[in-house]
Design brief:
The protein starts with 20 loop residues before the first strand and ends in a 5-residue tail after the last helix. The strands form three sheets. A three-stranded antiparallel sheet has the order 5-6-7, covered by helices on one side. A two-stranded antiparallel sheet has the order 1-2. Strands 3-4 form a two-stranded antiparallel ribbon. By secondary structure, it is of the alpha+beta class. The chain is elongated, with a radius of gyration of 24 Å. The chain is built from eleven helices and seven strands.
Length: about 325
């Protein structure tokens, strides 16, 4: 195949998708499906290739699956989703510019795409660079050698991390002291007026106190809440927060960090955790040990089982349950 030749069905003829693929987390899915859908720990994974229809040829869409399969088998599933979304944006931008579906990714197309980006969005091509290079290294048609040479010849800015915090962005940055005090007062008033449920109340307070990620709260179990009686008779309340991998947020309960909780919230949290443990112990429909019950159980049953996280609320739902948007 020459550098500028589009993919044909014949050029993909020797490349066949396996009947099933096992993701790095152990989840199994059908790679030939138009939409990959499975659970990876607490993440609900969805990669809908129909969203590429219209901005890429059928052959290029088929070719895209091969590097994504490599990522599914060797990286976290959330990385697969992010790479797919970035690729979709790239193909949509190129397709809009040339007025037809993309058939092959070549150097001039990447150069034009880079020119359309700003200093704040240039990271999108940088984040795709490794994916495009992997695509080409697998010997799958769709990315030319010239495209890879172009990516290797340029320097791309990375995504600015923490900019909202460092600049105290009024919309995306952290709460100011005044905003935090107002939020705490409104939260307490809403709970006193019975406008917010106990689990939402405690979840929001934990967000305020600890500032952890949604996935870390979703991973919590009732056994992570502890009440410690000290030698002087005073009580301390500790929450064992699971650590997650930076960036990807991999859901594995292997390492923890003990965080002290203020007594007023700690007492409520102990009572709440005990009630959840009792609920899971009395109801026979739950097939897990009461001590392994989720601290924040899901409100709606899901069709797919999440190994190790049965009945846990997903990170996205944790965010929606947090009514104050912390």
């Amino acid at each position: 195949m020459t550098e500028k030749r589009a993919i044909t069905r014949q050029s993909l003829g020797d490349l066949t998708l396996p009947p099933t693929v096992r993701a790095l987390s152990g989840a199994v899915f059908d790679p030939s499906a138009k939409r990959w859908a499975f659970h990876d720990g607490l993440h609900s994974i969805s990669v809908n290739f129909e969203r590429l229809r219209g901005c890429a040829t059928d052959e290029l869409i088929a070719a895209t699956k091969f590097p994504l399969l490599w990522y599914a088998e060797n990286t976290e599933a959330t990385t697969v989703v992010s790479q797919f979304d970035l690729m979709r944006r790239l193909l949509e931008s190129i397709s809009d510019a040339q007025g037809k579906p993309v058939s092959v990714i070549d150097a001039p197309l990447l150069a034009n795409f880079r020119a359309s980006l700003t200093s704040d969005t240039e990271w999108r091509l940088g984040a795709l660079s490794a994916f495009i290079k992997k695509w080409n290294s697998l010997g799958v048609p769709g990315v030319t050698n010239a495209a890879v040479r172009f990516l290797k010849s340029i320097r791309l800015k990375g995504n600015r991390k923490g900019a909202a915090v460092l600049t105290m962005d009024p919309l995306k940055g952290p709460l100011t002291d005044i905003e935090r005090s107002a939020t705490q007062a409104a939260l307490n008033d809403a709970f006193a007026a019975k406008k917010i449920a106990l689990d939402d109340y405690l979840l929001t307070w934990l967000c305020l106190l600890l500032g952890q990620r949604n996935i870390q709260f979703a991973m919590l179990k009732v056994c992570d809440v502890e009440e410690i009686v000290k030698a002087d008779g005073n009580h301390e309340y500790v929450l064992r927060v699971p650590r997650v991998k930076q960036g990807g947020g991999e859901a594995r309960r292997e390492q923890f960090k003990a965080r002290l909780i203020t007594p007023s919230i700690g007492k409520l949290l102990i009572g709440y955790a005990s009630s959840v443990r009792e609920r899971f112990g009395l109801d026979e429909k739950f097939s897990i040990a009461p001590s392994q019950a989720p601290l924040f159980p899901q409100r709606k049953a899901t069709k797919r089982i999440r190994p190790g996280f049965h009945h846990h609320t997903s990170p996205d739902e944790i965010g929606r349950q947090n009514q104050f948007g912390i």
